[in-house]
Amino acid sequence: MTPTGLPPAVPAPLRWLDTGAGRVAVYHAGPPPGQGDGRPPLLLVHSVNAAASAAEVAPLFNHHRVARHVVALDLPGYGHSDRSDRPYNPRLMTDAVLAVVDWMREELQVGLVDALGVSLGSEFVARAQSEAPASIRRIALVSPTGFSRRDRRHGPPGTTLVKPWLLRLLSRPGWGDRIFRLLTKPGVVRYFLKRTFGSSAIDETLWRQAVINARQPGAHHAPLSFLSGALFSADVNTLYESLTCPVWVSMSTRGDFTDYQGRDSVEARPNWQFHAMEGGALPYFEDLPTFTAALDPFWR
């Protein structure tokens, strides 16, 4: 599925990688490795929702490109990446992240990269690091899923929270399309962004990009899998508890993503840092200087 009339998510060169997860779009910019501040390249991974894209990490991309090489991808089913009709699950998303990491290491001639994930994208970043610890040095998780008080997930390895009956219903011709169109009306997109920001003061550029994203051919496939639970890992808490690399976590204080009581399973571990950042689930849109002042020392 080829995007039509979809502007770039960030102001940077865009290229496509042919991977085992399909055609993946990546944006990249910044000083070559060995220049800038000397830190490894950084990969940014957006969240998953009805109209997601790399636009969700644009402020971080623009901040980091000044001093280090930074890459942002559109996950499979989103943005300029392959939106074909296929199973969308954590394995597909993690494979896309790993493919971009491999490309970064080869293209930029580096041994290690850092990675940041947003919301559900955090689960894919964490899994990628657990599977390629020699490639990913440090990870930051912004408003990550999997830390709520009641939502403890220690299921069998590789399983998901998919509801098969719901996935079958959403896959019926006409049903899924109709539900997706309702969920991605401009006013509905604005409503969900208000819940994400915990405020009516949303980022208007992000809203416009999301509305255009939702009108692309094949835009419904990944979001309908998301609605069925197929993109949530049933073993995510086991995954988090297995991480030995340094992990930095931003916890939002407003909106729908404020329950992090489940962090007690890892909070006392020396490789984990938790920071309450004033704002919604995307706090760097609201106060980039404060957010980066807390995060930047972690990368160093």
Notable characteristics:
single chain, 300 residues, alpha/beta, eight-stranded mixed β-sheet, 11 helices, 8 strands, 36% helix, globular
Structure description:
This protein is α/β, with parallel strands linked by helices and 300 residues long. The chain contains eleven helices and eight strands. Helix 1 links the parallel strand 3 and strand 4. The radius of gyration is 18 Å and the shape is globular. The model has no long low-confidence stretch (mean pLDDT 94).
- Shape annotation: globular
| Main pleated sheet | 8 strands, mixed
Report the structural category.
alpha/beta
How much is the radius of gyration in Å?
18 Å
Spell the H/E element sequence. EEEHEHEHEHHHHHHEEHH
Oligomer: single chain
Number-wise, the strands total: 8
In the sheet with the most strands, the strands line up as 1-2-4-3-5-6-7-8
Averaged pLDDT? 94
Tally of contiguous helical segments: 11
Helix % is 25-40%
State the separation between the terminal residues, measured CA to CA: 40 Å
Strand content: 15-25%
Which consecutive residue ranges, at least 5 long each, have pLDDT under 50?
A: none
